[in-house]
Design a protein that fits this description.
This protein is of the alpha/beta class. It is built from 10 helices and 9 strands. The strands form 2 sheets. The chain has a 7-stranded mixed beta sheet, sandwiched between helices. A two-stranded antiparallel sheet has the order 4-5. A hairpin with a 3-residue loop joins β4 and β5. α7 packs antiparallel against α9. The termini are far apart.
Length: about 300
């Protein structure tokens, strides 16, 4: 049994497309996958509930309004505990495997040190996923079978968007634990907008996102403590007309973190996000007009 068999009956990921695509946006939900293969659960020391502590529950649903508004949405069905595509392809912890990892693997990244590499070691608050070491083939199978095709799909969506509109913007959608605080203070934000400290997107686009969400009464902070992960950093190329922002949503707005059930706030938040998406697209329609001339 391999990663191919793990997703034989459920696609590892899928794209929901508008017909036609009307705006230069691509939405991505890489951590909301909730298909836990039986083979994977049998390998884990955690029960079916505990292993979901790293999951961005329902984020794909919260941003589903993007499709009707005119932008594609790429969603993972594989869980983050199984494979994390918001990492470099070979961020591997050699302590997890019974075989040597490839010499090109990034074994010293802070994410690997924290147990959150491409094939994660931990979920939630430091809980080990596996009771023993894995064969390296387990990791390479997941990377070759799912990680590489996922990023090829995301890359194609962005290339097609850029070709069609002359520019594009990736919104990478995530959720965060309720207890996350911004900086050293006691502020618990509703949203954190990450642009890799101004590197992955034009400041005007970041400011627009923050302004639109703040106008709806939400507490929004910028880059602290989440400035964006590999996806935001890798695909954000403002000088080339490709912008990328990461949006983190406080889970307490829409779900019970203990039971993983949606709360009464779920539908109100989804409605707000659907309106926010439309407003952002309206803003971008005017903003992007002058970008090619400005770049020249």
């Amino acid at each position: 049994m391999t990663a191919v068999a793990d997703f034989e009956h459920v696609p590892a990921f899928e794209v929901r497309r508008p017909v036609p695509q009307r705006f230069p946006f691509v939405f991505n939900s890489p951590h909301s996958g909730r298909h836990y293969p039986g083979r994977f659960l049998a390998m884990s020391r955690l029960d079916a509930g505990t292993i979901r502590r790293s999951e961005d529950c329902y984020v794909d649903e919260l941003f589903s309004g993007a499709v009707a508004a005119g932008a594609p949405l790429l969603t993972a069905n594989f869980p983050r505990a199984y494979l994390d595509v918001n990492r470099e392809p070979w961020e591997l912890d050699p302590r997890m495997f019974s075989d040597p990892v490839p010499p090109f693997a990034n074994i010293r990244s802070p994410r690997v040190a924290g147990g959150l590499g491409t094939v994660p070691k931990l979920v939630g608050e430091g809980l080990d996923i596996y009771s023993g070491r894995l064969r390296l083939a387990e990791a390479t199978g997941r990377i070759d079978t799912i990680y590489m095709p996922y990023h090829a799909c995301l890359r194609r969506l962005l290339i097609d968007t850029h070709c069609a509109f002359g520019h594009g913007m990736l919104i990478d959608c995530h959720s965060m634990p309720a207890g996350i605080r911004a900086g050293e203070g006691s502020l618990r934000p509703d949203f954190i907008i990450g642009d890799r400290f101004g590197v992955s997107a034009a400041p005007a686009l970041t400011d627009c996102v923050i302004s639109l969400l703040s106008a709806r009464g939400y507490c929004v902070v910028h880059n602290k403590p989440y400035a964006g992960g590999f996806i935001t950093e890798h695909y954000g190329r403002p000088a080339q007309g490709l912008h990328a922002l990461q949006i983190e949503i406080n889970r307490s707005l829409y779900m019970n973190e203990r039971t993983l059930e949606k709360t009464a706030g779920f539908h109100a938040l989804m409605d707000d996000l659907t309106d926010f998406i439309r407003e952002l697209m309206d803003f971008s329609a005017g903003y992007f007009v002058d970008l090619p001339q400005a770049a020249e």
